[in-house]
Amino acid sequence: MLGEAWRAMGANKMRTILTMLGMVIGVGAVVLMMAIGQGAQYAIGQTISAMGSNLFVLLSGSSQTGGVRTGSGSALTLTVADADAIAELPGVQASAPIHPGSAQVVYGPNNWNTAIIGSTPAYLDARAWPVVSGAAFTASDVRSATRVALIGQTTAQNLFGDEDPVGRTLRIRQSPFTVLGVLGSKGQGMDGRDQDDSLIIPLTTAQRNVFGTQFPGTVRMVMVQAASQEIMPQVEKSMTELLRQRHRLREGQEADFYLRNLTAVADSAAESTRVMSMLLGAIASVSLLVGGIGIMNIMLVSVTERTREIGIRMAIGARERDILLQFLLEAVIISVVGCFIGLLLGIGGAWLTQLLTDTMVIISGSSVLVAFGVAATVGIFFGYYPAQKAARLNPIEALRYP
Amino acid sequence: MNPEVIRIEGLGKSYQASAGAFPALKAVKLTIRKGEFVAIMGPSGSGKSTFMNILGCLDAPTIGRYEMEGRSVAELDRDELALLRNRTIGFVFQGFNLLPRMTLRDNVALPLIYCGVKKAERQARAETLLVKVGLADKADSLPNQISGGQQQRVAIARALVNRPSLLLADEPTGNLDSHTSLDIMALFETLNHEGITIVLVTHEPDIARHAKRQIHFLDGGIVSDQMTEELTA
Question: How many whole angstroms separate alpha carbon A348 and alpha carbon A369?
């Protein structure tokens, strides 16, 4: 039976190849698009989990001086006490007051300008940011404003090179700081900045010794982590109520702080990636469908052309199912071989995409399986009607076909 | 007397034409016994080809009874008919009807595919038959590489490969010259001597003379049914 199918396909090589090409392109497109889509989803997932999950950011309000309004965080309405109070709210996992800035950091002959984050140990929890060597500073470091620092990977590389930074002393604006630990790598943030190019020091140290502040105890921002995604709206509500109370805001009065849900931003990015990859898959599937219709078309032509042959076969004893199987087999072989070639092309294309554009691609076993399954189904689905048409022929009419 | 292979009673076939039903066969009654060699004759349009197609289970009668080896053909479904064509009947066509892309060996072996014979045995049986029809050296040729007479021999080999009890031939010499026709008829005579029942359709009296029994059709009915010995006597 297989030999027969090969013979029939070989009799019209060009036609077989062109029909197969429809499947090749369809399957190749599906595999490539799925690889790109899954790669993008994976990349965005990485970014989101690096950011930390279920996060809110509280920003101080803006100040207004004679009609000129400054940006958020300029009025320093939030306090460390606010952050501590929020930490006590039910559903809040961590609450970290933050004083961000940047400064020139010096170690020996090297110096480097980096982002300095003044915060508390809660910050590391909220961002899910591990210390990979050495140790984190503690609440007592924050209380006594010790000069210690946790160093990001990029900063460490630029200042220390191959040296182990733990235990060394670097200087920020002339003040010596002991490096307690090295932070794990976070990679690129949602805004595209290198998150590893940073240095974390105790909040109090940042405020008193490095940047200074007009109002001790106030902060520009507080990062809050909710215990789970589900309770985020509830935490948001209770946090707003608490802060309005603490800031003695009247009903209807504009809030003097801004509350941002970071997860919502991340979710919408993930959602748009998901939609994009689905769209890519859908468009690619259309070409698979077109390939299937091509198979059906050619099989119908083939059945008509070989009507006489079908008649002869029936006259010497072929049953309906023999004829059905013969034509179905041909359609399935075309689609499965086409699928195999398409798979190779799709994987090659994905690999090339990764190489040339630096886009992350993922070829999962499931996408390969799906492509194969779809191809076999397409072959059977679109091959069945022509095959059945052949099998149902009346022998004497088929024999009379010119 | 030998057992009956074919028994036909009140057989009729009509075609639907625009001017109403057109009868091609009318109330045909015929019995053929094992080992007979029958020639069916008649002018074109007399219904002999239609009759042959019904005998070969390629076409169904509109009315009447057709029994093959005691079984009523009308009660068989499509698969059982296919089995009958595969095992019991060998059919030889005027136009040979070999499959053009297959070697002669594969052409002869083709009926065996449909009854599940293994490939090695298929090949062996096909070769045996090709030897019998004198074409052993051409087993790997394609049909378009040999002459018409040779093609018809291959077609006969194909019809015989599954050892049928009945060989039907519709104008087997119609496309052949007179010399080649004689060869083919000699082959039929040999086969008949070996015990195969043969029914062939022809419109040439010279060809029909090789058969033992001659039946004449006219306007869809049998007008004469005689033994060749009686005719020549």
Answer: 17
